[in-house]
């Protein structure tokens, strides 16, 4: 059954050496081995220059076209936007927060997928859902105070941006957790691609959430109040 | 002068083994060595869980506060924004394009810094300046056509977004090239931190550029034309 490869004797010697070394010697030896491996790598495959201008332009243009989808949503809320400059003022902050939160969660999960041989996806999702709500609430309170100060204590604008921020940050963390797992386990694609996908999805979703919350609180609720008076 | 370390004999043996192997055997041996090194790594330092909720909240809140700086700029252009919904419609697309272009350039430079022992910073900057203009022009033409179609052939809106897009993409690529080099060579900080810094700078700069171009083309130039008539 066992097939003796020509290099198996050398492997045995290497393993013996490794186990015979003291902790300090091991460090020196490993440092040396790593350096030699890097040398071999460099000889085996020359550094691939993936700096092709056209592939860069293609990716950037594709992302641009996808992200420009938000213009349709914003146009359909043109009434809200031209009457409430508040929406535009905090739009880049809200959309940016979604991208940051999603990316941060994705990076943590991607590293988890790369280093841990086995972990329970269910417990990870449960824990990250909990994290998403806590992080969402804490970041939202910071954002609320920030808007509240600039809007000189006006509650409705601060509440509008705050609620939108909470929805964006929590959904972004959940997406950032799920997407790398879906990419690796279900679609069998490198989970590192999650970054730009999250960025684009959260751009569109962030604009949707902001407009929906703005429409509900600034237009519908105000109209309702006016009717009651 | 020469100090013989206890592990130096083993290092010699290892080097001899390495040079004695054929290409195919080398692959098998290296694969084995890598696996053993990973085992040692795992034993030496247990996986550090950097999933601290509070450090995540701190970073996200800091980015939020920095990105909210764009609200001051947008408020000072409130007249332009409430009269030209075009600015808001394409703002997330423009700001997003800046972030993407800057990040892409930074990732390429960071990998360059990590793999190449020596390369001419001057020639890299020259080449990336050239790339920035070419990529900026090509992405801008895609963006121009995209806006031109949605605005049903109106030239001034398409030109406004196009010029803003060109300025944002080129400046973002230049920033993405320079920042990792500055971080590593001058401030001596891990260049991997360039990502979020670029995101925040390009958010603010993107809003500035868009408002400035919008003010010049949509307000000042139109007013000038009206006067002439």
Automatic annotation (TrEMBL), chains A, B:
Top-rank taxon: Eukaryota
Main location: membrane
Sequence ranges assigned to domain SLC41A/MgtE integral membrane in this UniProt record: 92-212
Ranges annotated as spanning the membrane: 53-73, 85-110, 130-149, 161-183, 204-223
Keywords: Magnesium, Membrane, Transmembrane, Transmembrane helix, Transport
Residues forming coiled coils: none
Gene Ontology cellular component annotations, sorted alphabetically: membrane
Topological type in the membrane: Multi-pass membrane protein
Protein family according to the UniProt entry: Belongs to the SLC41A transporter family.
Name this polypeptide is given: SLC41A/MgtE integral membrane domain-containing protein
